[in-house]
From TrEMBL:
PANTHER family in the record: BSR4717 PROTEIN, PROTEIN NATD1
UniProt protein name: N-acetyltransferase
Keyword Transferase: yes
Domain N-acetyltransferase positions: 6-93
Keywords linked to the UniProt accession: Transferase
InterPro entries: Acyl_CoA_acyltransferase, Gcn5-rel_NAT, GNAT_YJDJ
GO molecular function annotations of the record: transferase activity
Amino acid sequence: MPSEVIENPAEHRFELALEGEDIAAAYYQVDENGNVVLTHTEVPFAYGGQGIGTRLATGVFDQIRASGRKAVLKCSFMGRFFATHPEYGDIVAG
């Protein structure tokens, strides 16, 4: 299973390819300050409990950091991830 998270700006989401055409996705909007507002995370039910959400979140936070942007956490999953991964505090705005 590929493990690279990619940003798909046309769909306003970060994607983690799974099996076949399945993907896990973290949806976002960009606010007036250029922050990445994470709004919703989806992992297909069949992949639950396999750490896919954590892999996705780690890739999302790493990509946001690498791009020099900040994240605003409106997604409850991303908020919970950040609560247990404070090492990303440098990129979380608000």
